[in-house]
Amino acid sequence: MGRSVLELCFLWSVVMPVMIALPIANTTASSTSPLGDLLVSRIAFGSCANQSAPQPIWNAIIDFDPQFFIWLGDNIYGDVRRPFKLFGKERTIGPWKNVPRFIPSSEQEMQSRYKKMKTDPGYSRLLKNTKVIGTWDDHDYGLNDAGKEFNGKITSQRLLLDFLDEPQDSRRRKQAGVYTSYTFGPVGRQIKVILLDTRYHRDPLMSDGTILGNSQWTWLESELKGPASALTIIVSSIQVISNLSAITGPIFYLECWGRFPKERERLFKLIADSKRDGVFFISGDVHFGEITRYDCAAGYPLFDVTASGITQAVEKAVPPPLNYIIRFVAWLAPTTMRVMGQHCRHKSCTYGIFFNLDIVIVMRPFGEDMSRGFQFTDLKGDWLSLGQPNFGAIKIDWDATPVTVAMEVRDVNGFPVLSVNTSLLELQAQSIGALSKIKPVEYRRHCSLEVTLPWIVRHRLAILFFCALASKFS
Prior knowledge:
The protein is built from twelve helices and 18 strands. It is an alpha/beta fold. A hairpin with a 6-residue loop joins strand 6 and strand 7 (191-195). Helix 3 packs parallel to helix 6. The longest helix has 14 residues, at 261-274. It starts with a helix and ends with a helix.
């Protein structure tokens, strides 16, 4: 991701503490998986796994019993992160920064980190019985925030494909980038999985250039306009629907498709022009879970299920007293695309960063095992979370009429914390009519982009930040 949300929030708290004193063989074309015609009804996915951190969440993923697992990126943390230093000879943050915060590691170190990840006891158990496919994001690509300019990408591609047990004769090893697709299941009940590469060809941030590059765009068009499937899952390492940078800037920015508006509009138009039903996105990167929805692109709701991460979560990386700052900032951030409703553990309908500020919190140990830390409950004993890891889950009930699809984000114990229940019928163009159009001055939830919010709403975080900063130095 760009700078991770957790780091940026921590930096913010340092600068302004007074403010809150309050699988598989494949080609680059659609391919049939070794699962053959086996009907797929359970899929798990995840991202952001620090190979050196404890990974108890694999137990919950295995208990979910997915027929295949999808890596969304940051499958390891392969680059080297220097410590925060505002002063001194080497300054990694602040207005006097003179050295990069992240630097690439050697090929040998990358290999060592992949080996450590692959031999993790929990992940090793998953590999024994579950097909694993995946793409990458920046930290397993080799460098935080990197794009096409990164010199080590050819080596990184080989190391990722080795980690994923990609056959040596795979065309994926010969092309520029790791994008590919898979088709699972019998005819009429097929699931197509399209893995995008958002790194190899990506132009610099803030350029509004390309994310995918010409060759990948041509390939993606052929994939979407190819044979129909009941469901099409587009895997993007970065969020497609949500654009938090539109409301957190200019204080800090996150990587997402929204920072390349022409590319995102091209993606939405391609989906609409392909007349392909049953499309939705899954994404990672941001170190919290979220489900977003956009109704004004394909003629039916486009969902984006963000599961992040296997080990990484925003609040785990900052001292506990500063978590209150993160929660306040998260609560204050406006949103137009997030799915809100009764199927969320918290009113904010995010997991791992956003919290309901109206509850009273009680800290209790996890049952008898205090070594696992503490859980947080309200006075009724309902379980809450502070920055816990998460993974994504998809369940398809092919026997239901119409066929139903449950999209979920689950916690380290395997319990759903965010979920959306939809059906194949609702993921067809006629479900909400023709492509929706609204005037720029109008507001419509799940249709109006964050950049169209009223100025004072969109920038209220920045307003508060600069007001607090001014009061501190006045």
